[in-house]
Amino acid sequence: MIEARGLAKDFTSRKRTVHAVRGVDLTVEEGEIVGFLGPNGAGKTTTLRMLNTLLRPTAGTATVAGADLLRNPLEVRKRIGFVPQAIGQTQGGTTDTNLVIEELLDQGAAYRIGKAETARRAAQLIEQLDLGGLDQRLVKTLSGGQRRRLEIAIGLVHQPSLVFLDEPTTGLDPQSRSNMWEHIRRIRSELGTTVFLTTHYLDEADALCDRLFVIDRGVTVAVGTPDELKRRVSGDVVTLRVNGQLPAARALLAEQPVVQEIAVSDGELRLTVEHGEEALPVLLRVLDGAGITMSAISLARPTLDDVFLTLTGRSLRDDSASAGGGQDKAEGELAGAGARTGNGE
Ligand SMILES: Nc1ncnc2c1ncn2[C@@H]1O[C@H](COP(=O)(O)OP(=O)(O)OP(=O)(O)O)[C@@H](O)[C@H]1O
């Protein structure tokens, strides 16, 4: 669905060049929910804007939804949906006096879809995105979460095979965020839409995405499923508490090939193992065979923040806190994105 090689973008203003994206390779399969994870200023939005034809790459090639990005951007634009970052906090454009249903119908008209067909699709999207009963409401009266769901519905009216969501849950409360994840999954399962989203929320990347591209300072630093990425860090940690016989248990477990490291702290054994779910039954059998009983056992995986820290030496959270770029984003952007994107006119 996306095949990109060496995508790069430089911005030059007043003799200063910013290498926003330095050569990103991406492969996204049909039907995947893929996340682009990285701190502020990493180059996520710039990459997204190149892939959805709003910015022309300085270098690189890409095929997006079956069309060549550089040679046939209009075809790419027809086949994809794009929901940009929310403008402002939660309410978006305050001058927007359209009704919810009008926004959806206007989007159909922008793509020259017949009225009856647009109305049918609008009704389906209203249902799928839990906007039922809101179709006659003014857009400006919607809550932040409702507004964001409407923006996604607008991005899907022309039934794109691929939709780009730029930070779909930024600014939403925790409950609305997890509802949004449900809606995004539902769009994928009911419409078969491939979803490519950016996020700097670790929990979102973990809970929602099939695969992740971790980007830092304009380059991809890791690719994989959330679990694969976490495994690359330092293995899983098994913590167990035995009933007496601590030294014997320690000696026995230390001999097992699945155990990489073992330590005792606060009367608990802390073991580092490569694959926790495979190691657990082995450890249990060994202890059982020696007649050692346990009072507690737990398995923990490293977090995606640990992955980022290992790969870059910096914490993703620290970077997210200090909003990096974005001072002068107008320069270098292409005018006119074709159909409206959901942030009003
Ligand atoms: N039009 C522009 N002109 C100059 N520099 C730009 C422009 N757009 C982006 N940049 C710079 O390029 C870098 C990458 O920005 P980008 O918006 O792609 O990052 P991001 O990962 O999406 O960040 P965020 O999470 O804050 O949205 C930043 O240093 C930013 O300041």
The shape is: elongated
Number of strands: 14
Total domain count? 2
Radius of gyration using CA atoms only:
24 Å
**CATH superfamily membership of the largest domain, which one?**
P-loop containing nucleotide triphosphate hydrolases
Sheet-strand content, in percent, reads 25-35%
Q: How far apart are the first and last residues' alpha carbons, in Å? A: 29 Å
CATH architecture annotation name of the largest domain: 3-Layer(aba) Sandwich
Helix content: 25-40%
Broad structural category: alpha/beta
Main beta-sheet strand count, sense and barrel state = 6 strands, mixed
CATH topology of the largest domain: Rossmann fold
Task: Outline the low-pLDDT stretches.
Answer: 88-95, 319-345
Order of strands, widest sheet: 6-7-8-3-9-10
In DSSP terms (H or I, runs of 4 or more residues), the helix count works out at 12
Order of helical and strand elements: EEEHEEHEHHHEHEHEEHEHEEHEHH
CATH class of the largest domain: Alpha Beta
Mean pLDDT, as a whole number? 84
Bound molecules: adenosine-5'-triphosphate
Keywords: ATP-binding, Nucleotide-binding, Transport
Membrane topology: Peripheral membrane protein
GO molecular function, one term: ATP hydrolysis activity
Domain ABC transporter: 2-242
Task: Please explain how this structure is put together.
The structure is a single chain. 36% of the residues lie in helices and 27% in strands. It has 345 residues and is an alpha/beta fold. It folds into two domains: 243 residues, P-loop containing nucleotide triphosphate hydrolases (Rossmann fold); 65 residues, Alpha-Beta Plaits. The strands form three sheets. A six-stranded mixed β-sheet has the order 6-7-8-3-9-10, with helices on both faces. A four-stranded antiparallel β-sheet has the order 2-1-4-5, covered by helices on one side. It is elongated and about 75 Å long. The two termini are 29 Å apart. It binds adenosine-5'-triphosphate (ATP).
